[in-house]
Amino acid sequence: MSLTVGSVCSGIEAASIAWKPLDMKFEWFSEIASFPSRLLKEKYPSIPNIGDMNEIPDAIFQERILAPDVICGGTPCQAFSLAGWKHGLKDDRGNLTLKFVDIINASDFIRHKNNKDSTIVFWENVEGVLKDKTNAFGCFISSLAGLSYTFEMKKWPNAGLLRGPKRNVAWRVLDAKYFGLPQQRKRLYLLAGGKNFKPETVLFEKYINELSKYPKTALEFDKEGIKYEVFREYTDCLYSAYGTKWNGNAAATNGSLFVVQNKRIRRLSPLECERLMGFPDDYTNLPNAKKTNRYQALGNSWAVPVVKWIGMRLLNNKENVFYINDNELILHGVLSILKDGSKFYNFKNGIEYVDDASRINCTNIPENSSFKTMEEIVSFNNDETIYISPVGCYGIIRRKNERNSTINKKLEEVLLSISSEMTKDEIDKKSRVQKRGHFSNDKQTNKINMTLRKSLDEEYRDISIQFSIFDFPSVEV
After folding, report:
1. Confidence of residue 239 (pLDDT cuts 50, 70, 90)
2. Strands 159-163 vs 168-175: parallel, antiparallel or unpaired
3. How many CB atoms lie within 10 A of CB 452?
4. Which of 282, 285, 424, 430 is deepest in the core (most CB within 10 A)?
């Protein structure tokens, strides 16, 4: 079966990479950011990029573009993430989530007029949307399902099903590290469609196997004559600002986004980030492309193998049919009948009985996991701009000491070793000037800071001061 697809908030088109082998035909994209738009034009010259998603409903109504079998999208997640301060629907980007529903409704109107089935909806977002204080997720699925009111919950489950008057909607959080990508990337995947569509048979699985545990693999290895070291079997979630800012998050102290290459520590390269997302090598390496653009585009994209897995199940969902016994699920508190007769299934436990003998898997781990090692990801890199200098290494240690936080022991050894390549005076002169962090209450250090500011040569007067690791007491972890 071949399906036509329209893509909203297309980014660099993980869906196209994932679904091209499945013979799913993309009819149009919608992207406004400059670098992804340039990539779409170069990689997919025959597919029109509509641009602003706000224009799509009218374009569909006027039949200037096709109302496709499938519409996929990942409306801006920043409004629901920690990085975006969780403004949810109070943020204009969050409100694009509701505009996405307008697009689906327009598509269904045209399809029904032409005696076609309702559009299948595929939507991806950060799992933080489930915890959004503005109930963004409740607004979204209520609108999709066709409720006349907004369904609210104090805590949305990581997996669930809503059978509404207009559409059936199912969702599940999945972790990319169980799909052949050594990256812990938990994302919310949602499917919806008309009343004859059963999204649960695509997203949920018959529970047959004991779920996999992530395997232990070598953290030090030789590859093509180069010695490498990583600090964990898989990385933390790649984020859009990776490579452009100091890692002030957990990745700075667990080391998961760093690589040691021949005893020098560096960030992951854009090529390695492509591999961690499941893209072909150099997919984002356009002529004169900036690393900043590549990192941002990849961090905002989708995990390709997860999307491919969903696409394959969408095309072959008859193989995964299971029966849900509503009476039993009501008794177990899984099923709630809403005031308009709609049905809400709360699969919060992950493994749920759906009848007397059968269980389904709604966890973030699929029934059949696959794994890839960091050795398969890393590649020789001679780009000096992604290496961490002795000053940068000491900066991570300094912040760790200021915050009295834990740090990966092996990472700490590497950072201290590289920091020791420079003397205290050299580090003080080369350091960037910045105000002391709010975690620091070291008055003596601040006094030294002001003194050094006044004594710097004119060459360094506009450069901020950081202090070497020797200015801070050792912290046992």
Report:
1. confident
2. antiparallel
3. 16
4. 430
